[in-house]
Every structure is written in structure tokens, then in C-alpha cells.
Amino acid sequence: MTRQTLINRGMNKRNLIIAIVLLVIINAVSLTLLWKSRWSPQREVMESSRNTPEHYMKRRLGFSDEQLKTLHGLRQQHFEQIRPVENKLKQLRAGLFEAESDTLSAERFHSQLDEIGRLQMIVDSLTYSHFRQVRSICTPDQAREFNRILRDMTERRFGPGAGRGRAGAERPHKPR
Hints:
The protein has helices at 3-39, 41-50, 53-61, 65-98, 106-136, 140-158.
């Protein structure tokens, strides 16, 4: 081999190594920038604040800052009241399914169901009261839209027609 061929091979190998090193550096910088822009704490705070009920009410109902402040207080109060009841409900429900069927008497089973029903009635009553309080801070136009939001929310949770005076109406059985 001639000296020129060896030099060209050396240059090609050197150029290839330089290109690989540059590509690795560019890749590392790109991934770092992408990760930082995607997972920055500021972005997380901004995105999570967009998903709060307060943000939703501001966007959907046009709540003022004062209404938002009142709503925040109402929500805190509501969850302080409801949390212990919901915790007790979780315990009772878990107890029903954790107990072996032959060790749980029918009387005890029905007693626990009655207690679950009583506690669920308290949760529903507290929730209804909370929504009445929220409605009371709305303007008349906001209250109409708030009623639509509640109706939509109820239908999503319980099905069409729920929350429209159909209490006690039987739902048709849907075969699976």
C-alpha cells in the first residue's frame, strides 16, 4: 500500500470517529433539552393547575378571583367533612370482601350493608349541600351553566336521565 492510501484510510477513520462523537454529543444535548422542557417542575405546576376544579370553574363559568377564593374554601371544608366518612366506607366495603363468606353471618352482612347505606347517604347529603353552596356564589347565568355541568357530571357517572327526577326508576338490564 502506498503512503497516500494509508493517510486516506487514517483520515477516513478519524473522520468517522469525529462524526460518531459529534452525533453522540448532539443526541445527548437533544435528549437533555427534551427532558428538561417536558418534565420541568414549572411545567408540572402549570399543567396541574390547569386541571384543578378552580381552573375549570374559571374557564367554564368565568368565576372571578373572589369566587375562586370562596370556592377553594368551600372545597377544603367539604373534603374535611367528607374524608372521615369516605374512609369509614372504604373500611366497611373492604371488610365485606375480605371476610370469608362462611365466617360472615347473614345478620352481620346485612348490618354492614345498612351501615354502608347510612354512610353513603351522609356522603350524598354533604355533596348535595356542597354543590348548593357553590351554586350560591354563582351569578344567575353562572348558576344555569353550573346546573348543566352538574347534569352532565351526573349523567356521565350514573347514566342518561340520572339526576332529573327519575329516582326509583328501574334501569333496563343490559345483557353483557
